[in-house]
Every structure is written in structure tokens, then in C-alpha cells.
């Protein structure tokens, strides 16, 4: 007979073996889903081919879930993830809280675009290196070169947009959705008009004549945008420009448009130029939206994490990911690769934008400030409040939040 | 039978302990956080009294979110229960192929809410959406379903009604099928018209089911989050922001745990009032 003691021992053994399996991974990575998730998946497979004994667990999450999971886990000192992917706007919080381990400087190549490794340091450009840039995203501007001349200023964008706006094709398209989307479209405009969100000391500095002028012109874009722009997000912007429904897109991220010249998916093959956004009072200031990866301060497999990160960001791997998936690289050499430039003809412009680019303010409460600004921008876009009220009220709320 | 008084308590203890850990403790802790300025990163709690509630109650965005939530809850619940009643009355009578049609009517309920919202987002696109193409085909003007602040909330009511009317329908169909047939047969013999039978027999007997359907739909619609998250993100111009979405943003985007807990406490109180109203209606003795 199978006695109770034997049964209990067997169950305990089973439980221990299951627990053992659950903790067996040699490296656990938490990253984004979608294009970045596919890039990670492809790289993990290639890395495992070189390290067949290694068990790598990859967790792919949407933007919001990744942030929540990481913040809660890091704050609790959780060691579930060894290597984590973070958005540029989260970097200050993660680095200042000591949630990321310092990386070995010797392994960092000079090939990385300096503006990108600067924001991998805390304090920016000076402190130790906590992450490596893995996706060279920068907000670009797209226009139809067969319909118009390159716009040099935002005033020019508005003027040409009015001329090109018809019932079938809008003058401009942008992300008008409340929150992060509307803000990221607006920021290059704000900077070009000389406005700022915070000053050099980190105090809110949003309520200014420059900000009001930027909001006023941003709001005027609605007249030459598609109906329903208030809920447009990245998918709608990409479709509008690729399906010949808009003459300009004021905000285009490289990872959205790898199919711009694909005749099966695009109606505007070779008719769209992708350039850094225009200037106005100030010169063009492209906004960086770089994704970074760092090793968790609580990582159980820190050495393996750093080794995989070195592989993931190597020039060869970046070139493969760019050619196969359209993932924007972060190394200068990949941007000058002949085959890469042949596939993505706007890459030289993109490299310039990355070099000139500016990050969003390096403050811990950026998520909240961005949300506040997004709420008031949309109220102004819909004419519920004036640009002056938007600047003033957003300023007050942001100051209170800080 | 139990031999002594402590045995039932002992047997219930694990379940009660689990309930206390998973439900009562988080609720109690939310109440504590609601009266503090909780610093998430450092774990510091500073008691601030009613400050979080005062700030919220004087905040235009909170007022707007509350008004949106109330409008959505009332309209979606009433429409869904009304439509559910009509469908239940239709399906309570035998007709050919009834068993084939029933699964078709309850199919939207089986979809994941995110899938459902994504489908409707595509259908409601101003330029490419199926709904506006249909409007074009029948000579009606295109509608900015999700981008017009005056229309966006009602568009979400439409999506929720499409998905969740089947739930009210099933509850009420079960209620109708539970009505003893002899009562209706007696009424028919007495010469009662179909309307009189509905008004004086079916409706009073359905009352607990109607309240149950209303309660379940009210509680569910009151928590509205995922559809808004996918369809509008709370916009345009805060026209579809709900209390749940606001609590989520405060809690998990900004980690303002005090404000998020205060919103959760307010929502809990409102849900409690709804539940008590239902309990009072169901439990009261017939006059």
C-alpha cells in the first residue's frame, strides 16, 4: 500500500522539483511587446544558439504594464528580472532610486551616438553608466515631397498645410489622444517656439508667452487635420500618411514607419521625406524617445544580463534587427551601413536628428507632468479653454505636482 | 454533526483568514492611505486628514470623472436591462431555430473586453470605420463617434450595451422560465390580455431578477475602465474619463497612493450604497 507518509514525501518531492524548475532560468529579461518584443525574441534565439546551455526567460509587456511591474518590483527589491527595458522618460526615476546597477564602462563602445549614452548616465552626461541605448527612437517629421517643399518653420507647416488641405487629404496629421500621445507631438513645437516645461533648476516654467504662442499654433493645426484627430494614436497617424490621407505628419517615430516604401502596404512609396522637425524661434530640436536596457540592482544573474546586453547592442545584431524588423539602431556605424541606408533612405536624417536631439525633462514626476499637460492641451485643442488658460492652469497643476 | 462549538469555527477559519488577507486588509489599508500623503518610493506615510478628499471634491477633473461615471452607469445599466427584458420576452416563447439563435445573441459576452473594444474602435473610425461607411450607404452623415466630446461617452455606452446586454438577457430569461405556467394559464382562462399578463403577472414576479440584473450591471458599469482605456484614453477633453481610470492613473502611473486610495474609497462607498439599495428592495416584505 501507498502509505500517507510515502504520499506526502512524493508530493513534497514534486513540489520541490516544480519550484526548482520555476527558478531555473539563467537570465530573465523584461521588455516591451510588439516590434521591440520581436527584436528581443530574435536576439534571444540568436544568443541562445551561441550559448545552447543557457535558459533565458523573456517577458514581453505593453508600455503601461511594463512600467507598473518594474516600479512595483524594483521598489520591493524583487529579483525576478535581471535585465530590464525602460523608456527614456523613466530613466531618471530608475537611476536616482538606485534600481539599476552600474555597468562596466570598458564594454561600452565609442560607436554609440553620444547624445544617447549621455542619457544613460545619472546625472545626465556626467555620472556612472546605468543603461545602454537599445532603440534609437527620435521624433521626426514627415512630408510629401511630391506635393510641397520642405517646411523650414512651423509657420511654414501651417501655411502649406492650409494650401494642401482638401476633402480627401488633410494638411497635417498628429496624435491628438489625451495624455502622452498629444504631448509628444507638441513638445518639439514648444521647444522650437522657445518654451519650456521646467527651467534649469527643475522648477515649472510652462506659463510663458512662448508656450502660449506654441499652443495657439498647435491648436490651429486641428483645422487642417483629419476629423477625429482628438483620438488619433500612432496607428492612425501611420495609416494616414501611408494611405495618402495626409500631406504631413508632425510626429513620426522611426519604428512606426519601416514600411513607408513598401508598395504592398504604402500608397506613397518614395513620396515621403522624413526629416527632423522644423524650427521656429529656435532651431529644430528633435525629441529623443530612446529605449534603454539596464541590469537590475537586485539581479541574480547580473553577469549574464550584462553579457546579453552587450550582444543585443552589438553592431552586428543591431544591423540584423534593423534590416529584418526596422528597429532603429543606436550606433553610428549602423546608420552609415550601405545596405541599411539603401533600405531606409531617411536614416542619414535620422542620425542627424539623434545627434541634435534633446530628451524630455529629467524629473522623477515626468509621467504626472506629462499627463497634466496632455489634459490641458486637449482642452485647448477642442476650444474648451484658451491657449493662455491652458498654459496658466497646466503650470499651476504641474507646480503643485512637483 | 459537530460535537462541540469550536469545530465549525475551526473549519471556517482558513477561508475566513484568506478572505481577511485578500479582501479586508487591502480595503482597510486603502482607508488608511486615503488619509495620508503616501510616498511610494520611500514608504513614508504622512497623515493629512481629509486633504485628499477636499482636493478631489474641488477638482474639476474629478467632478467630470464622477459625472461621466454616473451618466455611464445609469444609462448603460437601464438600456441593457431594458433590451435584455425585450430579448428575454422574445426568447421565452418557443419559435423555430430558437436554440440556434440563443448562442448568437450571447456571443458578444464571451469576447474579451479588450478585443471587443479594439473591434469597435476600428468600426468607429471616422474615415475608414464600418459604421460610417454604413451611414454613408444609407444617406446619413458620418459621425465622429469617439472624437466628439458630446458623443464619445454614448458611443462607449453603445459598445458596452452590445457586449453586456446578453448578461441581463440571460438573467431575465431564467426568471421568466421560472414563472409557474399554471398562473399564466389561469390568467388566460380568466380572459387577461397579453399586456395585462405581462404587467400584472410577469413583471411583478420578475422584480427580483430585474433588480439583480440592474445591480450586477450597475456595479460592473460603475467600474468602467478597459473600454475607455482602449477606445478614448479618457478623452476627448476628459469627456469619457471615469473614476476607475482616474484611480488607475493616480495609483499606477503617478504612484500618488493617497489620491488613488481616496478615489477608491469614494467608489467603494457609492458601490456600497447601490448594493444596500438592492438588498433593501429584495429583502423587504411584500405589502
List keywords for this structure.
heterodimer, A: alpha/beta, D-Maltodextrin-Binding Protein, domain 2, four-stranded mixed β-sheet, 9 strands, B: 287 residues, mainly alpha, MetI-like fold, globular
Low-confidence stretches of chain B: none
Cα gyration radius of chain B (Å): 24 Å
Question: What's the main sheet of chain B like?
Answer: none
- Average pLDDT over all residues of chain A: 90
Q: Structural class of the secondary structure composition of chain B?
A: mainly alpha
Task: Give the terminus-to-terminus CA distance of chain B.
Answer: 39 Å
Q: Could you name the CATH topology of the largest domain in chain A?
A: D-Maltodextrin-Binding Protein, domain 2
The radius of gyration computed from the alpha-carbon positions of chain A, rounded to a whole number of angstroms, is 23 Å
Count all strands of chain A and give the number. Answer: 9
Shape of chain A: globular
From the helix content, strand content and strand pairing of chain A, which structural class follows?
alpha/beta
DSSP strand content of chain A: 5-15%
How many domains, in number, for the residues of chain B?
Answer: 1
Order of helices and strands of chain A: HEHEHEHHEEHEHHHEEEHHHHHHH
In short:
Chain A has 402 residues and is of the alpha/beta class. Chain A has helices at 4-22, 34-50, 63-75, 91-96, 114-118, 154-164, 180-192, 209-220, 234-242, 302-312, 315-325, 332-335, 338-343, 347-356, 366-381, 387-401; strands at 27-32, 56-61, 83-87, 132-135, 140-144, 170-173, 246-252, 272-275, 291-295. Chain A is built from 16 helices and 9 strands.
